[in-house]
Amino acid sequence: MSNNFKKENSKTKIEVKNEDNSLSIFEKYLSIWVGLCIVIGVAIGRLWPAFPNTLSKFEYAQVSIPVAILIWFMIYPMMVQIDFSSIFEAGKKPKGLTVTLVSNWLIKPFTMYFFAWLFLQVIFKNLIPAGLAQEYVAGAILLGAAPCTAMVFVWSYLTDGDPAYTLIQVSVNDLVLIFAYAPLVMFLLGLNNLTVPWDTILLSVILYIVIPLTAGYLSRKYLLKHKGKEWFEGVFLKNLSELTVIGLLLTLIILFSFQGDVILNNPFHILLIAVPLTIQTFFIFAIAYGWSKLWKINHSVAAPAGMIGASNFFELAVATAISVFGLQSGAALATVVGVLVEVPVMLALVKIANKTRKYF
Q1: Residue 264 contacts residue 97 (beta carbons within 8 Å)
Q2: 138 contact partners, CB below 8 Å, separation of at least 6
Q3: What is the pLDDT of residue 24?
């Protein structure tokens, strides 16, 4: 590794540590905000049915235009943070990147499908109607094929991860996401006997990966050149983060205004869906984290590697579920349950990573 990279890496760590990068109120209590959105959305759907009925008219190629705009608010702030120039440093520490890529793309999507199928269509067979269980599994598939891109920076910080290398891991995964997400989703949905047109999945990839990723790259490059790094990170990104909060909360309210009947008729299903999602999260973390230990990877790289695989790009999963299956689908509900369990489960993994640091 070059001295320049070592200096830059050290500098980045110092800068991160000097900032208050712990969980914000929104991030720390994300499950509570999601719960409130469930209540508000269901209430709107029941008391003001004209609201979801009107929104359902604004669609193009099965894509809800209002929801698409809100989801761009969520995804763009994540994409604009990605520094793809950091990818050139990836070859200097190949082990950590190998763990991330293999666990995210060769293991995680398939174990997510397995656990979802096992619990929702076999163990809970008598508790969930077959058609609905199939849609729930589809939502889990959409979650499993999308590794985390944004919150992992928070998990990396909380485990004292190497911020420069975490950036490399996320950047490379985002590039793989463009090409691997659609084929993986189509294959696994096929295993679940669900046929989805290729053009629908590809449209979701273009809308929710390619467009925001391109916009993020171009605007990042332009703003860094004309405004400077200090303004970009201290002013632009700080203000932009509010769009993610607004976009997520409004999207969930809209989603649950359509899901009111499903929730009221099947409140127990939320807990049933959470079971395989939680087991999958711990399982994939154990694989990536344990592999890192056996491979003698430094803890500052091992912990974020496990966190990327364990957490999901739930914004993309929610968007794709809505585009492919509709706002009222079980698939959309399953992806939102993923949002509901994400933070408490990931915080538990952060504690595990910190307590086992001495073994690395």
Answers
A1: no
A2: 189, 192, 194, 321, 325, 330, 331, 334
A3: 64
Q: Report the half-sphere exposure of 88 (CA within 13 A, side-chain side).
A: 5
Contacts of 352-358 with CB under 8 Å at 24 or more apart are: 352/285, 353/159, 353/289, 353/299, 353/303, 353/306, 353/307, 354/158, 354/159, 354/160, 357/159, 357/160, 357/299, 357/303
Which residue is associated with the tokens 């199928």?
117
Q: What's the gap between Cα 184 and its chain centre?
A: 16
- Tokens read off for 353: 């990573």
Assign 24 to helix, strand or coil: coil
Least confident of 91-100, 111-120, 223-232, 280-289: 91-100
Query: For 241-292, how does the pLDDT look when each residue is reduced to its tens digit (9 = 90+)?
Result: 667 667 777 877 887 787 677 677 778 899 999 999 999 999 999 999 999 9
Cα pseudo-dihedral 116, 119, 120, 121, rounded to 10: 100
Give the residue ranges of DSSP H helices in the chain.
3-18, 25-28, 30-47, 50-55, 65-79, 94-102, 108-116, 130-144, 151-158, 163-191, 198-205, 211-226, 229-231, 237-258, 260-265, 267-294, 299-310, 314-325, 330-355
For 81, how many CA atoms within 13 A lie in the half-sphere containing its CB? 25
State the Cα–Cα distance between residues 305 and 299, nearest whole angstrom.
Answer: 9
C-alpha dihedral, 268 to 271 to 277 to 279, nearest 10°: -130
Residue 93, token pair as written in the block: 């520490």
Q: Cβ distance 122 to 290 under 8 Å?
A: no
* pLDDT at res. 197: 67
- As a whole-number percent, the residues of the chain with pLDDT over 90 amount to 31
Task: Look at residue 237 and give its three-state secondary structure.
Answer: helix
CB of 278 closer than 8 Å to CB of 341: yes
